[in-house]
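Students often ask why inverse folding is considered easier than folding. One informal answer: many sequences map to the same fold, so there is more than one right answer. In these notes we will look at a single instance of the problem. The structure comes first.
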């Protein structure tokens, strides 16, 4: 009988399948880790890695193999030996967490973020910290400390952000899955651009402490979650990282359900129409139609759902920013403004996406810090309740970023294009980005699957039904 490694490339199967193979002795954890490291090294010109952790990962893999060979296989953790990456903005003990800021370049995290501690306890092996947008954050990854992140399907195009490095690492098979963060699409947009899956959890399902930057104004909108090249790994990761933590007060008491309990047959699937002020390209819309047709063939009840108030998505987002975040104070809190030299501040401002600065400090945003802000925020809450009540246990197929991955810096000229992802951070609804193959240019397309709060598992079941990963050819 041929060995597992001769039959299957460990960088192409799911983390769940890989963990099972490691536990059964079909492949060593060391071989699995080395295979993923080789992928990251081979494609290092893409700029996905911020800081490697290869030697430590090898030591940890050898410890896994020693544990299995000793015969101590009782109560093995679920993700034993699975190689993963973690976004540089999330604390990993001994690793940098600079966020693109020059004055933080030599700092190293002293402790793991809660989700990192949990994923380690589940047996996963972190092989690298990944590149992310910084020092101010946008949906492209252009970091002054780690360089630019290039799309593996076409290096002339962006890999997205701010979890761009995670998107690359997973897409090329350099990680079974990755942990990242999402404030307005920072998981889902890189996932779409790089042809993989990502999940924005229900607000409060996963603790977001241990993330830099973190301010009171963004805590409720910022969610930490997984990116994966197989849908089943989204659930496997979420099972581990979800749940209350003392460091994050006020978390939701919702429990993560099991996708296996969801049947596509009879599921109500709504195709959102008249719901976005951003026009999607024909490629994106055709992909969404194909997804609806595929679910209908599987027995789902598919219908259209008008959501005209969702056309105010950027208004909801701007109101939240204007009402809850003082931009100048936030900047000072993040960078330690009084301690910065003038040239460092000049460097920071020069490297900041103009779109972000304009959104936060524009005259309209300043004027919105009035009763109109409260009205818009209240309207956002009502819309979230309306969607949840309307779809019940079903899902909505919603357009993601309206274009395939643009060329580098193209997103800075279209800041409004993030409305389709940002709105779900504001509404607190779970959203799964699902890859749906490639367009005629060989670039990934996809769809967002939206559910009511606490129905994350329904999104994940639909993603498993629809999604397909087409690894890039490099």
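Output (designed amino acids):
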């Amino acid at each position: 009988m041929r060995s597992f490694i001769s039959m299957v490339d460990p960088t192409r199967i799911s983390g769940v399948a890989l963990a099972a193979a490691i536990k059964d002795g079909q492949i060593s954890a060391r071989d699995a880790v080395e295979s993923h490291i080789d992928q990251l090294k081979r494609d290092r010109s893409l700029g996905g890695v911020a800081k490697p952790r290869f030697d430590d990962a090898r030591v940890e893999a050898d410890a896994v193999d020693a544990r299995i060979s000793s015969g101590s296989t009782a109560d093995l953790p679920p993700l034993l030996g699975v190689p993963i990456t973690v976004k540089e903005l999330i604390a990993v003990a001994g690793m940098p967490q600079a966020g693109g800021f020059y004055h933080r370049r030599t700092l190293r995290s002293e402790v793991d973020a809660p989700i990192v501690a949990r994923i380690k306890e589940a047996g996963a092996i972190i092989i690298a910290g990944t590149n992310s947008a910084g020092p101010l954050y946008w949906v492209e990854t252009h970091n002054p400390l780690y360089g630019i992140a290039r799309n593996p399907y076409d290096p002339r195009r962006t890999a997205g952000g701010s979890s761009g490095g995670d998107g690359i690492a997973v897409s090329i098979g350099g990680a079974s899955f990755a942990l990242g963060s999402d404030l307005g699409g920072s998981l889902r947009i890189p996932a779409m651009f790089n042809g993989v899956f990502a999940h924005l959890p229900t607000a409060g399902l996963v603790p977001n402490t241990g993330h830099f930057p973190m301010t009171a104004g963004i805590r409720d909108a910022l969610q930490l979650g997984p990116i994966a090249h197989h849908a089943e790994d989204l659930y496997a990761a979420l099972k581990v990282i979800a749940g209350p933590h003392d460091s994050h007060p006020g978390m939701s008491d919702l429990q993560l359900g099991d996708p296996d309990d969801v049947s596509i047959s009879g599921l109500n699937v709504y195709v959102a129409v008249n719901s976005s002020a951003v026009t999607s390209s024909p490629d994106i819309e055709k992909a969404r139609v194909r997804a609806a047709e595929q679910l209908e063939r599987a027995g789902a009840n598919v219908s259209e759902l008008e959501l005209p108030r969702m056309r105010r998505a950027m208004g909801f987002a701007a109101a939240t920013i204007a009402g809850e975040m003082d931009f100048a104070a936030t900047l000072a809190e993040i960078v330690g403004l009084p301690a910065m030299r003038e040239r460092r501040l000049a460097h920071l401002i020069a490297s900041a996406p103009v779109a972000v600065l304009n959104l936060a400090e524009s005259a309209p945003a300043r004027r919105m810090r009035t009763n109109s802000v409260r009205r818009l925020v209240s309207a956002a809450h009502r819309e979230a309740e309306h969607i949840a009540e309307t779809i019940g246990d079903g899902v909505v197929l919603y357009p993601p970023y309206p274009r395939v991955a643009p060329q580098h810096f193209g997103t800075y000229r279209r800041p409004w294009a993030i409305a389709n992802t940002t709105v779900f951070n504001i509404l607190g609804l779970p959203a799964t980005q699902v890859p749906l193959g490639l367009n005629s240019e060989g670039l990934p397309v996809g769809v967002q699957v939206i559910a009511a709060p606490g129905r994350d598992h329904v999104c994940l079941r639909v993603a498993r039904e629809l999604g397909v990963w087409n690894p890039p050819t490099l």
